[in-house]
Amino acid sequence: MAGMLLNLSSNRRIIAGLLVNLLSSICIVFINKWIYVHYGFPNMTLTLVHFVVTWLGLYICNKMDIFSPKSLPIRRIVWLALSFCGFVAFTNLSLQNNSIGTYQLAKAMTTPVIILIQTTYYKKTFSTKIKLTLVPITLGVILNSYFDVRFNLLGTVFATLGVLVTSLYQVWVGAKQHELQVNSMQLLYYQAPLSSGFLLCVVPVFEPLTGDGGIFGPWSLPALVTVLFSGVVAFLVNLSIYWIIGNTSAVTYNMFGHFKFCITLIGGYLLFHDPLSLNQALGILCTLAGILSYTHFKLNEQEEGKSRLAQRP
Length: 313
Fold this sequence. Notes:
Shape: globular
Helix content: over 70%
Order of helices and strands: HHHHHHHHHHH
Number of strands: 0
Number of helices: 11
């Protein structure tokens, strides 16, 4: 009985984490796109704001005794911090230079890349059925990109870099949490300020600090409030990503994430009037079919695994 209650409580926490991630992830896409379209706020500076607000949020959580920091050697999380910078910066640049449809569909390629990384470097095995579901996902992304009337080379480069760095980052998050024996807040508490420091060194090279378009430029009050709100939502996104990956897996997080793209796509067409051709719609349906197939096969495999463990003497 105690075991059932513990399992139920654990499932509720996972569902709550997924729900927070769902709402905050969808919200951050629309807020950031709004900031780029209506205010022209610089990308890397916005990313830096996200990192700083994330660290401040964790600092407040620490003072409220929500979690206890654990001392970590900086050298062991340097690459994770750098990948975090690339993950946020490249995905934001992809959002800035692509339509929301292309941006969101490109993110679907993260799952095939994660599986490739885990198979090649971590010797993890996946069934043939799981591997075959990656075919419609990849085909759908290619169809959408090829027939996107707003297709541009720069946006494609940023989207590709975003997928590669995001895949590495998500694999490393789960690995580091287990390697260092820390929870999501403990790891992010050290990584967020470290990532902020790296980005602070880079921002002056690529973006102006003063004048129009600079972080200390003449921004309106609505622009500053929107940017700050974006930072708060980013804190929720970052925290929920760490929590979900630490309590499930990078692949599980990604497959859950793909279901968010349907809502995001619809919002993009309604709010930003992104064009949608018939071939793009076919690409979206193809990707969705692959996602649903993957989820179905993955759940079946997990149930079969539990049954085999229960049957052992």
